[in-house]
What does this fold into?
Amino acid sequence: MKYYKFFLNSGGVLWQPFQNLVEIKSIRITLYFHKLEVLLRQLFMEIM
It folds into this structure.
């Protein structure tokens, strides 16, 4: 956790692309789960 805070505080050129990568991946994961949720809802609608 100390290392993480150190990276966060140092900011810098090294941290920025990594942060962008994490944001992109989290957006993709969010979209993926949203699609999954929509599919599950459609499935339940058909079952009911």
